Each structure stands twice: as C-alpha cells, then as structure tokens.
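Dear Dr. L.,

I hope this message finds you well. Following up on our conversation about the binding site, I have prepared a predicted three-dimensional model of the protein together with 2-phosphoglycolic acid. For your records, I am including the exact sequence and ligand specification that went into the calculation, followed by the structure tokens. Please feel free to forward this to your student if that is useful.
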Amino acid sequence: MDTTIEMVRAREVLDSRGEPTVAVDVFLAAGAIGTALVPSGASTGTHEAVELRDGDSKRYRGRGVRKAVSSVDDTVAPELIGEDASDQSAIDSLLRELDGTENKSKLGANAILGVSLACARAAANAVGLPLYRYLGGPLARTLPVPHMNILNGGKHATDSADMQEYMIVPLGLPSFAEAVRAGSEVFHALRAELHERGMGTGVGDEGGFAPSGLKSNEQPIELIVRAIERAGYRAGEDIALALDPASTEFQKDGKYRLAREGRQCSAEDMIGLYAEWQLKYPLASVEDGLGEDDWDGWRKLTQQLGDRLQLVGDDLFVTSVDRIRKGVSEGVANAVLIKPNQIGTLSETIEAVDFAHRSGYAAVVSHRSGETEDTTIADLCVALNTGQIKTGSLSRSERVAKYNRLMEIELELGDAARYPGRDAFPRFRRG
Ligand code: PGA
Ligand code: ZN
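The resulting structure of the complex is given below.
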C-alpha cells in the first residue's frame, strides 16, 4: 500500500468543554485517510509544550485555534506532501524542525500533535491494521487497568473538593470489560450515596460527580468506599483507589492551601496526609501529590511512601524525557503520566514511555480534561503495553468512548487478551 502523503488539512472543532480545538486529516496516495482530534487541559503544567490559541478577544473569547489550523495548512502541509506517513520518526523530526522552538510555541503543540497522530492513523488504515497493532506489533495484547475518576474537584468543578480527582481502580476484576462493569456499578452507587445525603449529582469536566457541600477532602474517599461496598464489591480486593490532587493548582508561596478545610499545609504535612490515607484506605496510586517544581518535597514523598504507593508525576514530568531523567536520577516518583499533547509528537510520547519503563517506572496513558471523541489513547496504551490508563468517569461520551474502544480491542484479541489487574500495581499492599 502506498503511504505517500497527498494532502494534509486542519479544521477547528469543539472539545468536551465546548472550546475550540484542532482536528487534522491526512490523505494518502492510495486513498487511506487518517484523522486526529487534539485534547486540551485545564490544570496544565508550566513545563508543557505550548497550546497555540488565537488570543483575540471576540472570536471564541480568544480561545480560537485558527493560528494552529494555519500552522498545519500553510506551513506543515506543503512540506509533508510526498513524504511517507509510515516513517513516523522522520515525520515527527520534520515537524520539530519546522517549529524550531524548545516548547513547540511557533506552530503550536496542538497543530503538531494533530499532524503526528493523523499520519499514524492514515498509515495504519493504509496497511489495514488497527492502530494498537500498527504501533505495537503482533505481541500487543495487554489491556490497561483503568483509573476511573468518579468524583471531580479542583479546576474540573466549581465548588467541590480542593483535590482534583478521586478515582477507582478495578484491579481485582478478571477482564477489562468486567472492570468497566464494576466501575459503572460503583459510579451509580455513588450517585445514590450522594442523593441520599441531599448532595448534588451533576458531573464535572471528566464526568465524575462534583458535589458542593463537602466537609473535607477526605469525605469523597469515605463516600467512594461506601459506594464500592454498596455495589457489592470489596474495597481493596476488587477495587482500589487512586488520587490526583493536582496539587500545583493549590500550591502558593510554598504552601499547599486546602481552602475547603481552611488550612495551609507544608510538603511534610501533605506527605503525612497521604501516609494516613494509605493506612486507612486501599490507596494504590497518588498523582501530583506535590507541586510541579517541589523537587525536595517529592524526594521526601518518594522516600517515605514510594515502597507502598505508586507515585505518578504529571505536571512534574509533562511527558518529557528530560524531566523524567531528572526524576529518575534524584529518586523522585516511580511512575509517569503520559499525555501526548504535553510533549507534542507521537515519537516523543513513545520515547517517554520507553524511558520510563527502562528506568523501572510505570507509565499511565492519560486523557485531558478537555477531550473529544478521538480514541487514540486507548490504542496507544495497548500498543505500548503500559497496563494502566486514566480516562475519566463512567459518563460523558468523550470519556466512555475510550472504554468502549478498549472493550472492542479486548473482544478482537479474544483469548490472547490479557488484563494485568494487580500485576500492574506491584507496590499495592492492601486487600
Ligand atoms: P488536565 O487534568 O487535563 O486539566 O490537565 C488532568 C490531570 O491533571 O491529570
Ligand atoms: Zn494530573
């Protein structure tokens, strides 16, 4: 099949928050087409690659992406025509050269990632392979254990917890489809728990409940443990918990401000809190427990809890090999969140996963809070054998699209499919 690029074009589409984002279509000589839609974060890390927005105040309140669309149509497309879409590393190198900046601020990481992913999709379509098999080869067969964010706080809600994400991790279930079923049942049990307490059951940006009136940042954990039991599962055996406090968002002047509890914490206080919760609850994973540049705090956190908790760096590492390398050499964290749009190309995303794995760190492929119907990350975690994905709650189509795609992959793999369950969490002790 001829995988020569014939045409590349970008368009402005909407994401799950109703904000504009970039879609790219790549057309190959033999007729195959690849399309990718780019996600967008709200609690973005300072060190992420730059998302280009128009910035003029009227159109989409300055949030338009016409500049990024023009990066693709006017700068990238003429250079890519005639190139081979199946030579991913050459495509991505060319994109980086055309941009020429460290943080992809000239063309925009949103423009660059759209092209990078659309090329991979087009090439996979041309050779008639599903994306996970095209990227992962014949041995790709591991489904991920999902981190399902069923209670949203922080920047993903208006008046909920200070901490951003309270997740369930169905690590004791036998298959991905059963993990989804358990997740959905717990989600609905949590709705009942909230309803009985007169608390709101509207959802936040990632489809988890976002109730106002919470008494503390611990209360969501208590409610979720009840919901797990109410749904007929054993907390710790069937379903563990994960948190993403996204603490950079409430860190100010070196202190962590838990506004809902009216208190300020040092890094040591925060570590103490996670240590307490690790003893009390079946907690398997904590992401961004401390701020994106709090390396001292992170070192202490890792020394104290790294043997019993998965400690994931998101804003800390921003899917960048340079930052992960610093983390590894300083003994910071033991897992990396992988968000393709933090770094901007598929090749660099894959390098980050490889580097993490070679360093003995886990890799968790992740969505953004602003998502679309694009399901690339579902295929990506199977291709890269990460064994873990974070892609939101059991509601809102931009979240469940990824779960639905993974269930489809599991069916397609048949007997070869493997659900790693607890094996994905070697540090997890409870249950
Ligand atoms: P974001 O949130 O997409 O708004 O950055 C996701 C996360 O922090 O993991
Ligand atoms: Zn995060």
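In brief: The longest helix spans residues 176-196.

With kind regards,
A. P.
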